[in-house]
Amino acid sequence: MNPWEVDSLLNDKWIEQAIDAWIKAKNDNITFDIIISSPLSRALDTAKLIAKETWYKEKIILNSKLVEQYAWVFKDSSHDDIKKEFNVESTEEIRRIFKSIKYNKKEDISDFIKRISEFYKEVTEKYSGKNILIVWHSWVWRVILWLSKGIDLDKAIFKNDSVPNATIIKL
To answer: pTM to 2 decimals?
Structure first.
């Protein structure tokens, strides 16, 4: 099952990863003025956990533009199932299938990139000069990586390895 299909709760491992990441950030003197989170439970619960650990008192800002691209057609398929059905062999080819075809009639990769780009522009303009903690999902990171670091879009989206859970990245 695809993790972005289910509004799943944090499990013990993810909670531990979030606490460990924040302890490392705290030891590195990383602070923030604002928390923005995807409204999906696993991201929001991570944001709440970090807010609690850091005595953050402001409201956590929810932004639906941070949810993953919806890919319901694959929800019950393993990578092996997808490889067999589409006659592909690599993870990169599977990523291209996930993102390039508008199976869900909602958004393809260009729609997804546009949505994340709009979010990034809004946040960088509205909160210029602020330290912002953004709690997002893996595919959102790929677009942010392209926007913030100028990495080749194809490489950022399809060839870049996923960021481990609860990684704090300074942009």
So the answer is: 0.77
